[in-house]
Amino acid sequence: MRLVVVTGMSGAGKSSVLKMLEDAGYFCVDNLPIQLIYKLVQLTFNGTQNIDKVALGVDIRSGQALEELDEVLDLMSMDGYPYEILFLDASTEVLVKRYKETRRTHPLSGAGRVEQGIETERNKLEFLKKKANVIIDTSQLLIRELKVQIDKIYLKNEKYNNFFITVLSFGFKYGIPMDSDLVFDVRFLPNPYYIPKLRAKTGNDKDVKDYVMKSEMAPVFVKKLEDMITFLIPNYIAEGKNQLVISIGCTGGKHRSVTLANELALRLQHLEYGLKVEHRDIMKDTLHS
Description:
Blueprint: E1 2-8, H1 14-23, E2 27-30, H2 34-46, E3 53-57, H3 69-78, E4 84-89, H4 92-102, H5 114-131, E5 134-137, H6 143-154, E6 164-171, E7 182-185, H7 196-199, H8 206-213, H9 217-238, E8 243-250, H10 256-268, E9 274-279, H11 284-288
Parallel strand pairs: 1-3, 1-4, 2-3, 4-5, 6-8, 6-9, 7-8
Keywords: ATP-binding, GTP-binding, Nucleotide-binding
Domain RapZ C-terminal: 165-282
GO molecular function, one term: GTP binding
C-alpha cells in the first residue's frame, strides 16, 4: 500500500498532480476534512477494497483544522500506516503571476494583496514542507515536465533528489533573466553570426556547435564552469536551496550561449538532480529579421 499526501502552495500545481496520479492508478481524494483522514487511511489499509495506491490532497483550504494534521500524521506513523509527503512549491513572483493570469483570488489574501496571502500560507505550511519526502519547485516547470517528474517518482519508483537545475541561454540585448541565480557572459568567444553560412543557424546545429567549441577558450570555460557548479550545488543544498537557474548569455542568445548551455547540461547529466535546458531567445532574431 502506498499513501501519498499531496500538499504545497496554492497555485503550485497540486490539482494538476492529483490528476496525474489519478491517471497513474491512484485513488485520489482532495480536500478531505482533516478529522476524516485517519478514518480513510484505516479503511484503505485494512478494508477489503482492492486499493493499493492512495493520494490525499491537503492544503490551506482546511483552515484552522490544518494544525491538527501534524497530530494525525504522527498517529498514522505510530499505528504503522506509512505515508509520503509530496510538497509542491514555487517562488512568490511566479505564484503572483499565475494568480494574475487566472484572475483568481488567493485563499488567504481576502481583500488584501496576493503577496501577503502567499507569505501567510508559506508560514502555515512550513511544518509540512519540513516533513516532506519530495519537494518539487514548479517555478520553471511546464506541465509536461512536471508530469515527467511525477511519473518517475510515483509510477516508475525512481530515486528523486529535491534539487532542480535549469541551464538557460539568453541574449543580453533582450535583458538578463530575472530568475537567474548565476549569470555567465560568453561574448568573449568567436561569434558565428559573422560567418554567413552560420548566421541563420543556432547553437543546436552541429556546424555552429563545432565552430564555437573549436575555440581554445570554449572547452576550458565549460570545464571550469562544470567544476564550479559541481562544487556549489552541495553548499546550496546545505543552505536549503532547492533549485538553481544558471543563465549563459551572448549578444542575441542564438549561437554561443545556446552551444555553451547545451555543453554544460551534458556535463551535468551524471549528477543525481533534476535537470533541463531552456533557450529563451533562440528564435528572436529569426522573428525580428
